[in-house]
Amino acid sequence: MVDRVWNFSPGPGALPLPVLERVRDELLEYPGAGASILEISHRSPAFERVIEEAEANLRDLLHIPSTYRVLFLQGGASLQFSMVPMNLLLESAGYVVTGSWGKKNAHAEAIHRGGARTVRDGGETGYTEVPTSLDGLADGLDYLHVTSNETIEGVEFPLGFEPADGPPLVCDASSDLLSRPIPVERYGLLYAGAQKNAGPAGLTIVVLRADLLERIPRGVPTMLDYRTYVEHRSLYNTPPVFAIYVLMLVTRWLRDEIGGLDAMAERNREKASLLYDEIDGSNGFYRGHAAETGRSRMNVTFRLPDEAMEKEFVARAADEGMVELAGHRSVGGIRASIYNAVPVEAVRALRSFMERFRTATP
Ligand code: PMP
Predict the structure, then answer these.
(1) Would residue 11 count as lying in a domain?
(2) Is 101 in the pocket of ligand 1 (CB under 6 A)?
(3) In this structure, are 269 and 229 located in the same domain?
(4) Ligand 1 pocket member 197 (CB < 6 A)
(5) Residue 4 — left, alpha, or beta (φ > 0 → left; ψ -120 to 50 → alpha)?
């Protein structure tokens, strides 16, 4: 018997149960391979089909145009903090910082290499908001970098924030890729660590407009050069085979069982509203971190009247089988991560707990 909790982990996060069951069922013998997916060559016909389907499913779900390349890398989203400027920063790049990941990103290689600067930083107000428009911010730059969802603060750009033209938009979409439809054609490059909405840790998805490959300077080390992954279809060396296999199953689940990204977005909206409605209706007992226009649908962050009560909240929720609700160690408070695979039922249970906790507190 399995005894699974309601998992609100910020990442690696919950995976769809039917996907885990399928992994379990196929673990000893991948169909047609006579061995586990963990034991077969990345050059085997069975894995060829896996990586092809994973890419095809992503293209299908996100409507990725044929002029874009889909790459599977390792090194986490954090390696992209370095790879993006190594490949695309020729003279100048701009970083819009709406939270801790964007700040870390902008201060990683991008800024150390020179030429990169922060064009917006919401740090003074504690990262509660996103800019209302990005128009004009990228003028004259090689690219403009944004983080579509800030996982720690729970601040997300609303749908359709992408400028229609101008220099390439580069986006760290680690914690909201595949949670809603996006206009891929408005991006130069999108990247995401898989471990929130797409699969297990160890895999980074990169979606890149092909013409940008032409500007990559000479001298970028082979494993850090996007062209290596394009030329070898992400099989220059051994890719994270298992993670790509799970991505294939997760994207299949999104398409066949959820019904695509419009349907997923609707579910995610419903889940987020359940919690924000309770926060808004609590007469200030729960205080949401993000301003209404920048509220994340993925990471719902809020405070209670004091820290002792927050500790109590986390402990009592865990007693009821709802785990990983403590906010990031750098900001404290409560964070409920409600990624794609967290069912509405789990969020309803949390909402009911929030109501009961509030009314039981004198
Ligand atoms: N960017 C964002 C928005 C994230 O949420 C995270 C991880 N939580 C990272 C980057 C870093 O990802 P990784 O651990 O895969 O390097």
Answers:
(1) no
(2) yes
(3) no
(4) no
(5) beta
Q: What is the phi/psi pair of residue 292, to 5°? A: -55, -40
Last residue of a domain, one of 241, 257, 273: 257
Task: Give me the number of domains the chain comprises.
Answer: 2
**Ligand 1 centre from 173 Cα, in Å?**
9
In the chain the first and final C-alpha atoms are separated, in Å, by 39
Residue ending a domain, among 257, 281, 300, is 257
Instruction: Give CA angle at 10 (56, 285), nearest 5°.
Output: 135
Q: Is 251 in the pocket of ligand 1 (CB under 6 A)?
A: no
Judge contact between 175 and 196, C-beta under 8 A: yes
Is ligand 1 within 6 A of the CB of residue 99?
no
CA atoms within 13 A on the CB side of 354: 27
* 160 touches 166 (CB < 8 A): no
Is 74 touching ligand 1 by the criterion CB < 6 Å? no
Q: Does residue 3 carry a catalytic annotation?
A: no
Pick the residue whose CA is nearest to atom 10 on ligand 1.
77
Same domain, 143 and 275: no
Q: How remote is the CA of residue 192 from the centroid of ligand 1, in Å?
A: 8
Of the listed 103, 196, 225, 253, which one is catalytic?
Answer: 196
Same domain, residue pair 264 and 251: no
Please tell me whether residues 118 and 212 are part of one structural domain.
yes
Which protein residue has the closest C-alpha to ligand 1 atom 15?
76
Question: Is 172 a known active-site residue?
Answer: yes
Q: What is the CATH number of the domain that holds 343?
A: 3.90.1150.10
Per-residue pLDDT of the chain (362 residues; tens, 9 = 90+): 578 999 999 999 999 999 999 999 999 999 999 999 999 999 999 999 999 999 999 999 999 999 999 999 999 999 999 999 999 999 999 999 999 999 998 776 666 677 888 999 999 889 999 999 998 898 999 999 999 999 999 999 999 999 988 999 999 999 999 999 999 999 999 999 999 999 999 999 999 999 999 999 999 999 999 999 999 999 999 999 999 999 999 999 999 999 999 999 999 999 999 999 999 999 999 999 999 999 999 999 999 999 999 999 999 999 999 999 999 988 899 999 999 999 999 999 999 999 999 999 87
Nearest atom in ligand 1 to the alpha carbon of residue 80 is 16
Range of the domain at 170: 17-257
| Contacting residues for 172 by C-beta, under 8 A, at least 6 apart | 77, 80, 81, 101, 102, 105, 145, 146, 147, 148, 191, 192
Q: Does residue 101 have an active-site annotation?
A: yes
pTM to 2 decimal places:
0.97
Q: Is the CB of 18 under 6 A from ligand 1?
A: no
Q: Are residues 236 and 334 in the same domain?
A: no
